[in-house]
Amino acid sequence: MIFMITHTIRRGCPFLLLLFAASGAPAQTLVPEPPLGPVPPSGVSVRLEPFAQLPATSGDGLRARLSMMRTDPADTDTLWINDLRGPLYRLVNAQPVLFIDLRDHLPAFTDSPGLGAGFQSFALHPEFAQNGRFYTVHTEDAGSGTADYTGPEVASEFVQGVVTEWTAENPAATTFTGTRRELLRIGFPHQIHGIQEAAFNPNAVPGHPDYGILYITVGDGGSFNVGQPGNLNRTDSLYGTVLRIDPEGTDGPNGNYGIPADNPFAAMPEARPEVYAYGFRNPHRIVFQPAALAADPEAPYIFVNDIGERNFEEVNLLEAGANYGWPWREGTYLFRGESTQYRDYIYELPENDDDFGYTYPVAQWDRSPENGRAIGSGIFYGGTGIAGLHGHYVMGNIPEGELYHFPVSAVTPGEQTPVYEFFLGAGSRVERMEDRYTGRVDIRLGTGHDGEMYVMVKSDGRVFRMTADPDRWRGYSVRNGWVDSGDWLGALKVDLSPWIFSRELDKWLYWPAPNAPLEDGAWVFVPSD
C-alpha cells in the first residue's frame, strides 16, 4: 500500500461576488480553493505502547471521555487525568486512583449533550502539595446559578461554564475531602465553545509575575453560530478570550478573584480587566513552552490552539493585549462574521489590513477531512525518545487523530511556520490513528515529567506512551526517487532498490529485503516540487 494524500476543492462560488455588490457590501476577493493544500509528511513515524487503562464511566461507545493529562508539581511519579464525565484520577505507576468525582459534589453538574460539556479542565496550584488548592472547569445547565457574565446580545442562556477553586484538607490523601468556592460563572448562548482550559504557567517561580496566576481560555460560546457576532471581538466581552486572574485576589468584577496589575486592559474602564487577549473562536488549549527548550529562557513561547470554523486550524503565539481577529479573520484570511451563510468562504486580506491591528497565527492548515478538522492538544516535545520530534511542537486532530508537528526553532512571529504530519509505524507500513479505530477517534495528548508524550483515546479509555519507531526508514518522503534521511545517511537515491546511493557518502549501499526502501508501504510518496 502506498499512501497518497489528496485534497478536495470545496470552496468557490462566483455568485457571491455579485451578491456583495447587490447588497452594497464592499467588494472582496474570494479565495476559490483551499489555499494551503495537504499537510505534507515529515518522514517521522512512532510507536504507541499501552500505558494505562482508565475506568469506564459509560457503557456506550465512549468508555471514558479522557480530556487532560497534567504532571504533579511535586511528585515526579504521579500524573493526573480527568474524565469529562466527572472523575479526576491520580495515575500512580500507571494505575488510576480516583481522587474526586465532581458529580458527587456539584448537584447541577452536566456532561450532556457532549460537544465540550462536562469536566473540561483542571489545574493544580504550583504549591498544591502544601496548600491543597486545585481548580476545575465544568458546565451546568442554564439557570443553575447567577452568571457573573453573559454577552451583550444573549437573550437567554443555553449553558453555564464554571471555574471552581477546591482546597484539599490533605493533598496527599487518596480521596478528596475539603472545601470549594466558585471563582467565575459565565452564561453562554449555545452548548459549544465554552470555558476550555485553566492552567498555571509552569515556568513561573516565586517572585515571577506569573507565579500563582491562572490563565483561562474561553470560547465564543457559539455566538457566531447563533447569529450573535456582536458578542465577539471586543475587550468588554469575555467570549473568545484568554483571561488572566489572581485566584487569591478580590478586586475582580465579582470579588472572587483578583486582577494582575500587568494585565493589558487592567486600567481601561471600558474593558474587562481580566482579559489578556481576545479574538479567538474556540481556544481549546493553552500550552507553555518549557524554559529549557526556549531560545530565550526568559521569554518562552505560550501557544493557543484555536479550533477553526470551516477553513483553518490555528496555532497562535499568545501576546498581551493582542486581537486574533475572529470572527472577522480566520487564519490569515478575511472572514465574513456577520452571517453563517458565508461560513464556507474566505477572502484575501484588504490592502489596509495593517490598520485593523490583528495578530495572525504562527502556524495553520486547511481544515478538511484530509487534513484534520479540530486541533486539540499541543505539546512542546522535550523528550529524548523520538529524535525527529525533539524541540518540535506536536499537535493532535481530535476527531480523526492525525498527528502534526513543526520545529519551534522555525517560528517567526508574524510569519507562517510549515506544518508536517507524522504517522504510526505498523509492520512494513505507516498508519493514522483512524486506521486503528472505527468512527471518531477523539484523541488528546499529554506529557510526562520526562518530557515524553502520551496519547489518550476516549473511545476505549486507554492511554498510550509514544515511542520511537525502530524502523528508521519507514515514512520518509520520496521525491523523484530521492529520500532525505536527515543526519542519518543524508540524501539517498532509492530507485534501484535494494541498492541505494548515499549522496553524503558518495557510494552505493546494499539494503536487502525485507527492509528494502521501496518495499510496499515503507515510504510515503509525495509529488515532486
What is the average of the pLDDT values? 88
End-to-end separation in angstroms reads 23 Å
Q: Helix content range of the residues, please?
A: under 10%
Low-confidence stretches: 1-25, 513-521
Q: Largest sheet, if any? A: 9 strands, mixed
Helix segment count? 2
**Would you count the extended β strands for me?**
34
Residue fraction in strands: 25-35%
**Envelope shape:** globular
Explained architecture:
The chain has two helices and 34 strands. Mean pLDDT is 88; it is low at 1-25 and 513-521. The strands form seven sheets. Strands 1, 21, 22, 23, 24, 25, 26, 27 and 28 form a nine-stranded mixed beta sheet that branches. The protein is mostly beta strands and 529 residues long. Strand 32 and strand 33 (507-510) form a beta hairpin.
Distinctive features:
6-stranded mixed sheet; 529 residues; single chain; 9-stranded mixed sheet; 2 helices; mainly beta
Q: What's the short version?
A:
The protein is mainly β.
Strands, helices and their partners?
Blueprint: H1 15-23, E1 41-53, E2 66-71, E3 78-83, E4 87-92, E5 95-101, E6 121-124, H2 128-131, E7 133-141, E8 149-150, E9 159-168, E10 178-188, E11 195-200, E12 214-218, E13 241-245, E14 275-278, E15 283-288, E16 302-306, E17 312-317, E18 329-330, E19 333-334, E20 363-366, E21 375-380, E22 392-397, E23 403-407, E24 420-426, E25 429-431, E26 443-447, E27 453-457, E28 462-468, E29 477-479, E30 482-484, E31 491-496, E32 499-502, E33 507-510, E34 524-525
Parallel strand pairs: 1-24, 8-10, 29-34
Antiparallel strand pairs: 1-28, 2-3, 3-4, 4-5, 6-7, 7-9, 9-10, 11-12, 12-13, 13-14, 15-16, 16-17, 17-20, 18-19, 21-22, 22-23, 23-24, 24-25, 26-27, 27-28, 29-30, 30-31, 31-32, 32-33
